[in-house]
Amino acid sequence: MPDLPRGEYPRPQFRRDAWRCLNGTWAFEIDRADSGLERGLRNAALAGEITVPFCPESALSGVGDTDFLRAVWYRRTVEIPAEWSGQHVLLHFGAVDYDATVWVDGAEVGRHRGGFTPFSCDLGERIGSVSVVLRARDTERAPQPRGKQSRRYENYSCNYTRTTGIWQTVWIEPVPALHLRRTRITPDVAGGAFWLEQPLSGNRPGYRVRAVLSDAAGEVVSETVRADLDLAPRLALSIPADRQRLWSPTDPHLYDLRVELVDAAGAVVDAVDSYAGLRSVSIDGVAVKLNGAPVFQRLVLDQGYYPDGVMTAPSDEALVRDIELSLAAGFNGARLHQKVFEERFLYHADRLGYLVWGEFGDWGCNEAEFGGYPGEDYQKPDASYITQWLEALERDYSHPSIIGWCPLNETHQNIGDHITVLDDVTHGMFLATKAFDTSRPVLDASGYSHRVAESDIYDSHNYEQDPQRFAVAMAGLADGKPYTNPDEDKTFSLPYRGQPYFCSEFGGIWWQPNAVENSWGYGERPKTVAEFYERFAGLCGVLLDDPKMFGYCYTQLTDVHQEQNGIYGFDRSEKFDLTRIREAQVRPAAIERRD
Q1: Is the peptide bond between 53 and the residue preceding it cis, with omega within 30 degrees of 0?
Q2: CA nearest to 351, candidates 339, 343, 362, 363
Q3: Residue 170's beta-bridge partner residues?
């Protein structure tokens, strides 16, 4: 549906043929006091219009209101095709920030809390015209995960324009009453197989699940399993040795996968198309290995903001371009920082062999009375963090490009004699991740506050700008005493116990010849671009040459509003000679030479 804004299929790894995109013009009204329900907005004509899926703060929405929006309302008449008769209609929302309620023809059909993860409403068997109304509430200072969205009126520091309401694709699809739910695909490189777990909406005698794996030469393997005994039948797709091809950054090979639900008579009741990448992630001492070999992770911090779309990319091509820009600069992956990126990004990362760490948007999640930065807005986390993170894991589990999980980021809190809510939530998010996914390493909280003793990974953030001083600060890793905490008066982390270690934020060099007012970056601005290149190469070199360092993450891919320390401008324009940036990174790292 290319004529609609963001009209491409939003869920490429679980695709049905029949669907209808609902992006485009919706009736819209801002409800600043959140009194719309009492004032009858649920059943009334709304005052304006908006272009979905862009948030009302964005220029692309046609609204462009960046003030506090405590509630917003959407309305649209949706035509459900007659050929969908006899099937259930699912109404999908890719993401709505933050607290959503949905009514169809005046009746409530769904609620969801969380600004980063998808939800669906089962409308039952319907055809013809239906009226869809959505209200989204988003209180600016409520204790909720919001990533880098500003809690003040203005943008400041590393906090940016807010996102309220719908900001990812809205769409409908028909499914039978008994249908397939999201497939969970686990690659098994050692066994030369994929393990599939196929959740179902229910069971029925005689039904079966059939899975067919294919490559460019045709069918590789197919298997069938009974679908009447388990709510999530499991099967293995064992790949013949001569058809095994590993997914990697240098060869991002993807197998095609088709999953069918078949009734007792052999008729296909439901079918989805998917894909899978055969790759492994393992830990060998201090090395994190991909398919059994150390691959130094040359990551870049990507915050996924756009001048005209805020957190929504203006086009699918813009998602591809961001990955291509990163690769052109010599990076091989990214920390997807402080938001759950739209799934189309992960699809392109899978296709292009781009390594990514999945992260949650928890910025400001702290226990202020036990430590924190003075003057900042802190919020105590709660159970909703774990709930929403589990939704992200469910959506993204099967993407081969994701090689690690990072639930939390920079949760500053001094370790004392208190066990706090933050401790419980940190441990809960870690345990939830490990329970959901045993195939990837998990970092409990990126930065300084490692509070889970069994965390698979240890890391640090270090924005020292002088390469020599940076080298001194990072040198303790050789003796098992790595850099971890910039505040000597507080202890944020449990002791290091020899896990794989990387500097997951560094650099952030402030460079923008035409800097905007109140712009910033880390440290003193280089006086010349030549000085920038020298500093960049020096900082990268310290980490590349450390035999116990498995990777790094440079801050950052692009400028974001006032934070002007990107390799590219906020508009994705080139700021540097990319040959110089690339050459500083692509030489073999010490850990890659170790074997």
Answers
A1: yes
A2: 343
A3: 93
